[in-house]
Amino acid sequence: MTTTSRARSFDAAAAVYAANRPSYPPALMDAIEELAGFALEGARVADVGAGTGLGTALLHARGARVTAVEPGDGMAAEFRRSLPRVPLVRGDGNHLPLRSGSTDLVTYAQAWHWTDPDRSVPEVRRVLRPGGALALWWNDSDADVPWIAAQDARLRRFLGAEETEPDAEGFTRGLPAGLDFATRRLRWSRRVPLDAHLANIGSHSDFLVIGQDAARRFLAPERELLAAVFPDGVVEESYAVSLAVARC
Question: What is the pTM (predicted TM-score) of this model?
């Protein structure tokens, strides 16, 4: 299956994604401002691969003048329901539908890995004004928490994925070459019902592409295991946000 096909798999599950995926901690916006060297309030921001608008909503709440860029029909529909007053244009990071020099900041909330850096990096450089910045971040389960590490191991076995060792900043994926990134790692948590936790797992592309029947072969026994760990039915999910910002 191609990268594009996997990225578009979210469209069929956009409502589940919107209802169950975690947002990001407010400290993330503080870190972006610090590393970018300017305030978000009043800044012209392009949030690329905006999905249902989790990152866009935080940028908008900080007073940024955000334009969201999203290729998927289902995700765009959910975005318009949750953020009807925020501009949304259809496109992707390899072909940004934005004017040259029109933005102060380009952001990718868990979306950069769906791009081709040979095309997306020149596009970022084109749409940024001189002195602008690119911010990339990923929200990963915090494997320093024992029950999460055990779940990650079960996920890798089920999906046939190899275990990877993070670098000093926690990144398990490469940043684009030719840009000088500063990084931060932010830990946070949320408490959600067990059903929401399992729906969150099922909304990831690895599960969307294998179909509901195959996904249930993991999610059903996982429910029993977690019910023993969290007998009150409320799961405390712990996350680590890996942020990278480059001034361009």
Answer: 0.89
Q: Rounded to 5 degrees, what angle do the CA atoms 158, 164, 155 make?
A: 20
Domain boundaries of the chain, sorted by first residue: 3-142+165-191+238-247
More confident residue, 207 or 28: 28
Burial 39-75 (b: 16+ CB within 10 A, else e): ebeebbbbbbbbbbbbbbbbbbebebbbbbbbbbebb
The pairing of beta strand 88-89 with beta strand 65-69: parallel
Query: Residue type for 139, please?
Result: N
Model confidence at 169, pLDDT cuts 50, 70, 90, reads: very low
CATH code that applies to domain 3-142+165-191+238-247: 3.40.50.150
Say which residue, 62 or 173, is predicted with more confidence. Answer: 62
